Amino acid sequence: MKIPSTEVIIVGAGFSGIAAAKKLHEAGISFKILEARDRIGGRVYTRYLQEDLYLDLGGQWIGPTQDRMYELCKEYGISYFETFDEGKNILNLRGKIRTYKGIIPKMDPISLINLDILMRKLERMAKKIDVHAPWAHPKASTWDQITLEAFLRKNSKTKSCYEVIKVGCETIFACELHEISLLHSLFYIRSGTSLDSLINIQEGAQQHRIIGGMQGIAEAMAAPFRDQIQFESPVDKIIQGANQLQVISGEQQIDTNHVILTVPPPLLKKIHFEPGLSEEKNKLLENYPMGRVGKCFMIYDRPFWRDKQFSGQVVSDDPRSHQTVFDCSPADGKYGILMGFTIGNRADDYFSKNEESRKAQMLNQLTQYFGEEAKNPIRYIDFSMSDEPWSKGCYAGLIPTGAWSTWRDAYRKSEGNLHFAGTEAATVWHGYIEGAVRAGETAALKINQKIQKESL
Ligand SMILES: Cc1cc2nc3c(=O)[nH]c(=O)nc-3n(C[C@H](O)[C@H](O)[C@H](O)COP(=O)(O)OP(=O)(O)OC[C@H]3O[C@@H](n4cnc5c(N)ncnc54)[C@H](O)[C@@H]3O)c2cc1C
Question: What sign results for the dihedral spanned by CA atoms 86, 92, 97, 98?
Fold first, then answer.
């Protein structure tokens, strides 16, 4: 009998892989993590420009009901701070720039009522979705046949209402709205508690940022088992035999009893499985692209817009601009940082230009919004995970029409001793870091229970 070199192989050292490893480590189960990149964090990536200045180029916010994230902060003594959210917000709608307070932009009364009714409708529909089985809702097959875009168009009686809800949803889902089904949108909303929760800063998913950057949490979690992470080791092939599995990365072959896969869907599709994955999982993977979003940071020597009572937040329907802008300055306000999201087709267009043009384009917008002082940044940096071979896009995988009804929970179902984690396998906070952590922990728990059962 061949002795396995390790009980579990985890593929990917993003939050999901690290969370799974943490649970296995605590349970005393041997494991190894194979990571394609030369760093941990995956879609979370904190880049330090200097000792007192860092940017979260990937995931950065946490908010209420993301209980595991707050527990991890507590466990490792990592501090977080309130996202700056005081003062006037800006709406750039059909060429007109105006200011407003709170979360609902200033529009004509009919559009405002329409927007409120539409948001409440989405909220009501999402509330009835069972996140473990979205396909089980009585109207699931109808909702799965239409795109989110078609639904919003049908229910928007004015152009302004449509444009505002469109930009809001693009920022939540990081895609063009015809790329996802209405059913997936409702599942995603319910999975993240509510639409209010996904949109809001206060009491919402954007409430807190991590001192030192989000990657610091993953680093702290991984510290006790860092030597068990093998970097620059993309997994190419997994052979599942009767009793054991063989994981192949380049020249290396490792025998193991269980594998946890945490990679994004398009990269899962690239791994060669012998025997192949189930037909349902393969079919789902054939049509499971990633969202497209770029984060663009304009860095100033101070957050000058706060002097003029601006929050730094912008919502814009102008296709040449960022959909949304946020104040991403450090907790102490030592520097001023405005971060713009460019999403979907706007992101494709933006990143087809060279860096100088991208900077000029953003500077031009920020000057319109915040005045002449915006013309003098100390630095501009942007980043898109669509260009990253080990992410292929962000924030998460996109589930198109028909997929939930047809393939149901095929993505997260274990196949033999192959276990599927990553945020795309999450039912709660799907698409978010919290979801990645929960899915990783669930996979580790499953394996632990199996081992316990086998040892009886
Ligand atoms: C711009 C942006 C903003 C975001 N904002 C937020 C936010 O504010 N809050 C929030 O909660 N979420 C946010 N998200 C989403 C969040 O970052 C992700 O949901 C989460 O990080 C996913 O973690 P994961 O472990 O599931 O996957 P990943 O982080 O993608 O980890 C998978 C790992 O697998 C590795 N890998 C891939 N293929 C292979 C292979 N063949 N072999 C070995 N290794 C492989 C990858 O290198 C990667 O490290 C954002 C994402 C982006 C990009």
Answer: negative
**Residue range 63-79, pLDDT digits in tens:** 999 999 999 999 999 99
Q: What is the dihedral of CA 340, 215, 54, 371, to 10 degrees?
A: 20
Q: In sequence order, which residues have a C-beta less than 8 Å from that of residue 444 and are 6 or more positions away?
A: 8, 19, 20, 21, 22, 23, 24, 27, 29, 260
Tell me if 186 sits within 8 A of 134, measured CB to CB. yes
Q: Token digits for 364?
A: 């031009």
For the segment(s) 46-85+205-213+291-387, the CATH number from 3.90.660.10, 3.90.190.10, 3.50.50.60, 1.10.10.10 is: 3.90.660.10
Q: Which CATH superfamily is domain 104-199 in?
A: Guanine Nucleotide Dissociation Inhibitor, domain 1 (1.10.405.10)
* Best residue for ligand 1 mutational test, from 285, 420, 433, 434 (most atoms within 8 Å of Cβ): 433
Q: State in Å: Cα 191 to ligand 1 middle.
A: 18
CA atoms of 246 and 4, how far apart (whole Å): 9
Nearest-CA residue for ligand 1 atom 42 is 234
Beta-carbon neighbour count of residue 44 at 10 Å?
Answer: 23
Regions of the chain with pLDDT less than 70: 1-4
The residue contributing the CA closest to ligand 1 atom 36 is: 12
Which pair of structure tokens corresponds to residue 443?
């996979």
Q: Give the largest Cα separation in the chain, rounded.
A: 75
